[in-house]
Recover the amino acids of this structure.
């Protein structure tokens, strides 16, 4: 059966509830080992774990922590975190508050561009009425008929440098890695092939080196959020820094642009799996 260690539920900006996601993985996608990695929250982990137990799947608790590096947002996945860890719960509650305050400002900026009540419209796209993501705004802009696709909503309004982009004071990579470690987890650099730095290639190498110096253990070698042609570069980092490899679809919703659970591909031969650290 397939492995998928990066997916989202309605606890952040996914479209399926944690139990719907588990059933989708098990019944439709052939995934036998999964992690739930919602943005900045472990609120869905308990429900997903119970659903996975009923299916007899291997379940790994997870989170995708937003961080800032070289003024860009970089995502650190934590796998195997204790979802009852007091510090993790406290810090993630604060991160979700930051998201919601940022969303108020994104809404203001969109309204200033001629839209109406965009904060409320994005909020209506969330399941938990909190932890608002730019993806919720993209879906709301699509409803308005303002854009033809989620991608266009990002390209026109929501990406860094565009009029409704609002920077958030996310923690540093070192803070996120330390938080994940103190909660008993392993830190994974998410989709390294997706970051676009002004400095280009050398800056991406510096990012990976910084992540390793912060104590990070693994990188996503195969991700639904990065091109398959990026795999060799990841393997080079794995060898150079003695990292472990992870795989994940970054699934958000059925029919989305990303691959279905498990569909991203599996770890290439010879790359040590992050699962070895999660026995
Ligand atoms: P946030 O964490 O709220 O800043 O938003 C990040 C979310 O938006 C994640 O789910 C990303 O997968 C998604 N996202 C970011 N950039 C893009 C893009 N260019 N096209 C589509 N989705 C994106
Ligand atoms: Mn997302
Ligand atoms: Mn991400
Ligand atoms: Mn993700």
């Amino acid at each position: 059966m397939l492995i998928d260690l990066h997916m989202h539920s309605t606890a952040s900006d996914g479209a399926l509830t944690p139990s719907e996601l588990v059933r989708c993985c098990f019944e439709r996608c052939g995934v036998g080992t999964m992690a739930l990695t919602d943005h900045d929250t472990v609120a869905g982990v308990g429900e997903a774990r119970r659903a996975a137990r009923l299916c007899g799947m291997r379940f790994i608790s997870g989170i995708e922590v937003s961080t800032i590096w070289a003024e860009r947002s970089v995502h650190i996945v934590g796998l195997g975190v204790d979802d009852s860890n007091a510090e993790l719960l406290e810090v993630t509650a604060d991160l979700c508050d930051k998201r919601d305050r940022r969303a108020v400002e994104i809404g203001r900026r969109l309204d200033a561009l001629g839209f109406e009540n965009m904060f409320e419209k994005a909020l209506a796209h969330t399941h938990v009425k909190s932890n608002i993501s730019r993806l919720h705004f993209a879906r709301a802009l699509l409803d308005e008929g303002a854009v033809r696709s989620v991608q266009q909503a990002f390209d026109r309004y929501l990406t860094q440098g565009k009029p409704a982009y609002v920077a958030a004071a996310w923690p540093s990579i070192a803070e996120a890695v330390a938080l994940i470690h103190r909660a008993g987890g392993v830190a994974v650099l998410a989709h390294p092939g997706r970051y676009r730095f002004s400095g280009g290639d050398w800056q991406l190498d510096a990012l990976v080196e910084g992540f390793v110096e912060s104590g990070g253990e693994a990188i996503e070698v195969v991700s639904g959020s990065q091109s398959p042609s990026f795999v060799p570069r990841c393997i080079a980092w794995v060898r150079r820094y003695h990292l472990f490899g992870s795989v994940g679809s970054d699934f958000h919703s059925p029919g989305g642009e990303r691959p279905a659970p498990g569909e991203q591909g599996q770890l290439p031969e010879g790359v040590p799996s992050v699962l070895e650290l999660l026995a």
